[in-house]
Fold:
Amino acid sequence: MGKVLMKGNEAIAQAAISAGCEGFFGYPITPQNEVPEYMSKYLAKSGGVFVQAESELAAINMVYGAAAAGARVMTSSSSPGIALKQEGISYCAGAQLPVVIVSISRGGPGLGGILPSQGDYNQATRGGGNGDYRVIVLAPNGVQEATDMVRHAFKLADSYRIPVMVMADGIIGQMMEPVEIDTTPIPKAPNLWAATGQGKRAHTNMVNSMHLDPYELEDHNILLNNKYLEIAKNETDYEKYLCDDAEVLIVAYGTPSRIVKSAIKTLREEGIKAGLFRPKTLVPYPFDALHEASKSVKFVLVTELSMGQMIVDVKLAVNGLVPVHFYGRTGGVIFEPQEIVDAVKSHLGGK
Amino acid sequence: MTVVFKKTKGLTNKPLTYCPGCTHGIIHRLVAEVLEELNILDRSVLIASVGCSVMAYDFFNTDCIQAAHGRAPAVATGVKRVRPDSIVFTYQGDGDLASIGTGEIVQAAHRGENITVIFVNNAIYGMTGGQMAPTTLPGQITTTSPYGRDVKTQGEPIKMSELIATIPGTYYVERVMTADPVSVRKAKTAIKKAFQNQVDGKGFSMVEVLSSCNIGWGLSPVDSLKYIKERMAPYFPLGVYKDKGKAE
Amino acid sequence: MKGRVSFDNDTCKGCGLCVSACPMKILALDLSKVNKIGYNPAYCIDQEKCIACTNCALMCPDSVITVERLDI
Structure:
């Protein structure tokens, strides 16, 4: 299949189908509606199940049930809807269920707006569910990478038995780009732990997140954390662009990173050596690589479509080596390349 | 000698964690007996809810999934849709089904999910220490209605069977009780029908069982049975509220 | 004698529901014994009168009762 022009949300849905998604449970919310719409049209045709749930709460719990029964499943939503899913995500993490959650984020807080935003970095990476848990968070920079990451998310969810979130901003959801969706089948784990009815098994299976004995719960949380450490070791991913000779390091993720690349081109034409560091996995965050990359620069500029959320992780990574500055727009406003150029210059001028 | 009654294979050997005299144990046994008699233990998946029956997964000899508070019907939907050959049932109390989970139960019924719901109504939050439930009777004293439920400010008890029966997608709804051997036998018949409906692919079936909470009610186990019969049943009338099978 | 009723003494919680359900009034809690889990277990005071109706077992929340019927 060559490249085809597709809207981001539809490409994400098609990528999930190509990955062997067996069930989709969702609820309408802008700007992700094309994902459930596409699923309702095509998932059943490939042998899967589509259910429009009554709420995001119900949708994530349907995902919990279907995953507990051993199916490869996903849900999608946008910011306020992801907030509602947090309870279920905590249960999925606690019960070690492989599920994929697509978040097409928009402006907040509250009902906020429907235009693209990165105000949900904390929501995605810290989560609003209770307890000692992590989910993997992948952040694509365009439609092609979004489809690749959705497929990768199913693989990661299966291999580590963990919820994986693909957090794309509303720009990716709504824009059309040429995309080639990989159609290679993704082998599925046998899921011997799943609650499908005992059948010929010698024992019954139980999917559960409750451990009333404190030592048992502690052991469980240590197990979850060890798994996370393994994920951090194996799956941390990032992109470095013109970093080798950079005197200024700009950190951005998602589609804003493409605006930053334009700004870097302008800056370099003006003799300012800027480079981009782009985390592709927000959890696990590429702390070590960013620390290394910041060693030889004058300062780091964090750019986000928010009032500054990822900057906390950047500061943890840089760990005081050089100053960390911030430039962001919020509420659905997207910065222009020139704004980034000006921000870099203002900090250089201050030296 | 012929054994005419012994513990069902549908229950595990773990001692139930319920208080002495709590009729949850009777309802567990009835469900487990029905699964054994219908020969569907190996196909069944229990969705345990939150409340006193939170550890039901330890007691049923079936595959089990523990759900978040109120969400059992949504979890059951997920399982049933991807594993249509399995027999999926939720076991929920009144706090779970009639309060925090009203959205999920109403919408699972509305979609006509082919699942079985066992709704245990004992008019109180037992697990958390005896607080007022949506089904707490008018004037009933609980730890959060210490002067008795005041219907002017706390509403009148919600009648879930009546409500669920009004939903077009529902196939079968019956209310039964566990007050004496006769009513327990009737309860089993209803539960069996609710599972047979699922086996036959008929659709959403719910059995509401009026049950006791002697500790929460401050009564002896035996007096609690009288309370079910004399106080609860008049407010929550027993009977079949919906049976599409009769209409067919 | 038409029937025989027996109890799993170790798991009986002494709630007395079987005692009140028995039409022959032949069940009681054994106040002279405390079982492993701290309760006075139920027992049959007159096995000869058991009619194997299973009412006691039907009302037992903890499935501790087995009922046998005499074959005729």
Remarks:
- The two ends of chain C are 11 Å apart (CA to CA).
- The CA atoms of residues 37 and 49 of chain C lie 29 Å apart.
